[in-house]
Amino acid sequence: MTKQSPRNKKIASLLSVVCNDWLGKSSVPEENNHPELYWQTIETEHFIVTYHQGTTRTANLVAKIAEEIYPHITGLYRYRPKNKTEFIIRDTDDYANGGAYFYDNKVEIYSENLDYILRGTHNWLRDVVTHEYSHIISLRKALKFGAHVPAGWFQVFGYEKERREDVVRGFPNVLVSYPVSGINIPVWFAEGTAQFQSPSKRFDYRDSHREMILRDRTVTGKLLDLKQMSVFGKNSIGNESSYNQALKKVSGVPADSIYRMWQHNLEETYSGRLQVVNKHLKIGKALQDKGIGNIYPVYSPDGKKVAYLESRSDYLSMNVLVVKDLKTGKKRALAGPVASSISWSPDGRYLVYARQTEVPSTGSTYRDLYIYDLKRRKEFRITRVLRATNPDWSHDGKQIAFVIENDGQTNLFVLELDEMIRLKNKESWQTRYYELDAHRLVQQVPPERKAHWQLFYRKTKFWGKAIRQVTCFTDGRQVYHPRWSLDDKNIVFDTSIKFARDIAQVDSHGGEIQFILNRRCDERYPIFNPKDGELYFACDKTGIFNIYSYNLKTGEVKPHTNVVGGAFMPTLNNKGDLIYSLYQNQGYKIFQIRRVNELPPEYLAYDTNYEAKIPQIQADDREVQALPAKPYHRTFSPLGFMPRLLIDYGTVKPGFYVYSNELLDKMLFFGGMDVNKDREYNIFTLFEFRQLKPTVYLEFYNQTAKIVDDYSDPEGFTVSNDKVKVDFNLMEADLGLRGTFRRFHWKLNYAYSWYRAKIGTHSYFVLADQKTEIFPTIRYSYLRGHSASFSLKRKEVLPEVDRSINPRYGYYFFLKYTRDWNRFLSGFNTNGGDLNEEYQKYYFNKFELDFERYLPVPATRHHSLSLRFQGGYIDQSVDDFFHFFAGSLIGLKGYPFYSIEGRKMAIGTATYRFPLARNLNFKIFSWYLDKIYLGTFYQYGDAWSEGSPDFKNFKSDVGFQVRLETYSWYMFPTRIFFEAAYPLKENRNKNIEYKQEWKFYLGILFDFDLRFDKVLRKFK
Prior knowledge:
Radius of gyration: 33 Å
Structural class: mainly beta
Number of helices: 9
Number of strands: 63
Shape: elongated
Low-confidence stretches: 1-30, 234-246, 1013-1020
Strand content: 35-45%
Distance between the termini: 20 Å
């Protein structure tokens, strides 16, 4: 036999997983599969619209809008797709957005209307359909390699210099996967053209919200420069690089010069317009001036406290409900995240609000109403699957008005309460059914629809005496923030049908709505002054949002704030004190004005003719014609192809990836291969089926390796000068299910492994006979393995701008159980004259745990400490082929991968990380450098087989890491890391000494988070 035993260990191609991560981010499949949905299709001359039950109106309206804008967008860019563009309409979550998948010629739109505090109110569907279709046309025309070749890949694997004789190749210490994009469009250009839409069909304009954000950045000196605007994660316009040259060619002026001219023009414009405003500012005193999203303040009934939503991260979706004592300044966080405006009960004991909540049966996330009891410090849910938001408590304490949304329609409802609101004893929940197309709440499903009621209704529950519907709009009218009149007879609310908002009222038991304020400017967030009954609201009549009051008897309108940014969401107490949310310094802050008084209107002179400058955009979508629909039949995107060049253990392996995805992301095929001149190859395929509640997946891997070894005879009976050629062929097939349950990702998996080898023909000289013998080719299998596993994974990290490079709040949890049934080669026999394999059975249970806690470092702004534990246990004695290996990039980094092994493993890691620069803002060609962090770490652990852990033999190492967060080609996140580790003691394994020496690691990938379960697959 050769020196190379059959116990070889080989790492499979990591690139399959690396590229699959990118593909997942490109197609953004839904995390939940929603098999409960019934899909239908509408087809027009240039479009195919696919939708599910409960989105009929939105689908037909999208079809109408798309055909109207088609000649305008395609004519502007002089490009028409060869095939019809697909629109997918979803309403599975309380979420408003749209996405253009230009490689697939597909647009996805969520039917909920956008209500976002950084955006003005537009005709949402006309805006988003035109915006996303502009992306499809402009970006498809800009593709370099065509729609079927989105990118190429340059990839490098480097390996440890492993010194064990029974190992073919060491563990990877260099991982590089870098894309060569088929498109190179900066964000400012892609988003700018999509917002421009076309000269003849524009449903977007720079409203007072966008003007506010731009004005605030200009006057505070925080305008983003061209480089900052060029990549995702920024929210303005601009870029340089290759478009510097393009702009110069078109305009004769370099892009940076155009940018400086634009900046200078903004500064001059705002300086002039704000002269009068700055002389007569009235903003009051800051109650909360930290964070970006302090919104929806509401005075307590006694006026001594204020409740509001406070931002606890870099994202507005993570707001927490807090209550602040206005006398002591103390505040207390109650619940979060909260996704609506809030309201007090008249006795001041309760707060009602909406939270985004998962529906366990479908995985959808809908807003539902919750009540917080300040006395008992406990939260109670009072609706289920109702999609309820923006509640307001009546003054008699017996009713809560709120809004329900479905298929882009919003309507007012009232929940009638009784003594159970004291929440002392649990009462039964009442059931109602929301009729998806008629937008009515009914008590029972009609008999003729009971067989397939899910196609027409959504089952809901509420906790209260009764529920009644106040409005039943089906024409697209939006209702936002209801407020009870002082006598509880009427409900006032802000509303829109096309562009901007007005303020109207309706009898609390229903009827025709009556407009109170109905002008071309935007009027929103109505609330009554409890002292005199005047209506307060926010309005942009001068181009800047300020707080005004309206006398319902005289019709007099009076201003009460004068700000540079924008004033929103007023609330007043009985003393006439005003609290509101002020946008300034790139965020919403809470401010208070004592004994608020009116201001002379001329003090607010920012733009005296603002209303006349609002574009006249004609669009009437109140009536929509229903087009013929047919059941959806599976449609697949054309086969995508991505060439790749892999440098693997010093050899060149050209190859490719191929993929195809079903239109609704219900099926996915992804595969690839590479091969070198020695015909060593890697092949993998992945198939996913998402039609059922859990995802069904099938993966197949086949990898070959060829080595040349010296023949040796330890017993000294033969000699040989021959080299022995050994070929390895490793195959593995995985079949499994995966899904989510209560925010845990679970996976049930079966894997079959078949590892084979071939020893080529070679000769040797027998000393005893003095003859040369020819040893024929031997083919054998050295592993036939079966395994079944179940794993749970959950990652909860507070969303911050730096959460990828430096997570500071949250944790990672991974637990896996595996049952293995393996037949492993133990030797050969010559029964019957043939060489036959003999196998040893290894049946065992294996447990793995990986837990990491992310902590902020006190008295610092961006420093973090992470504490990680990795553990493993195998319950039977096994060959060392099946051991845990505790070194290298995924273990103790100061030691080689195969230098530490055993049936049991425990590793602890502490990492301290801090920023060197959080705004590098540096660009090299199409590579944008954003952030750089430095970290230091200490590790302590070991792997062993028998008995309890011997801490005297535990190994430890120290090291440092450098992380660089960048973007490539404006759209690809590129995460670069370099790590160095030094062992604090020597180690010996398999009679090999591993000395104390530095070990180094390099990675260029899409993520910093390298986990054994996520990235690395080990072939044996």
